[in-house]
Amino acid sequence: RDLAMLTLPPKEVVVDAVRDNAKVLTAAGIAGVGGWMMYRYWTYGVSIFQPVYTKDGPKPKKEDRVVLFGKVEGQNRGPNPMDPPRQTVDPYYWMRDDKRSARSVITHLNRENAYFEAQTRGLSKLKKEIYNEFVSHIKETDENVPHPHGPFFYYTRTVKGLSYKIHCRKRSVGGHPAGAEHVV
């Protein structure tokens, strides 16, 4: 065949076809999401848009405090801070606790956690189903292909029941990993 004889359809035809396909895909997507929301509602009695935090939950106290952003005397705010600094009122500044030891913050967080647990207790079946669905699609005990870097081969492996990857290395002997595994 002679490729010079092939012609493309006019731009308008291509644009119309793409637009029509996009409409169909969008409608299918909306129907899919709607079906999923109906399934969740009828199966679990839960709406996807139902807020977990309601007016009945624990509310943190408000203590207005002026917070400065930008150039502040006695603080290193980087190479080019805003000058003059801007200020805003932060009613929840009291919750900032870099050492994670303020009793009032911990008490409030414990109340929020207890409220969350009480509100989501009925979702434990759904939580287990979602977890089992995720786990069914992954190989829990696995090891990736070692890659050389300097005198070692580095790789990661996962072990069933552990939450994190284990980063390892083996010494390179003759271009192949050999010897004992070292966890890095």
From TrEMBL:
Q: Pfam families given for it?
A: Peptidase_S9_N
Q: Known InterPro entries for this protein?
A: AB_hydrolase_fold (IPR029058), Pept_S9A_N (IPR023302), Serine_Peptidase_S9A (IPR051543)
User: What GO molecular functions are on record for this protein?
Assistant: serine-type endopeptidase activity
Which PANTHER family is this protein grouped with? PROLYL ENDOPEPTIDASE-LIKE, PROTEASE FAMILY S9A OLIGOPEPTIDASE
Protein name per the record: Peptidase S9A N-terminal domain-containing protein
| Positions in coiled-coil regions | none
Similarity comment text for this entry: Belongs to the peptidase S9A family.
Which segments constitute the Peptidase S9A N-terminal domain? 74-173
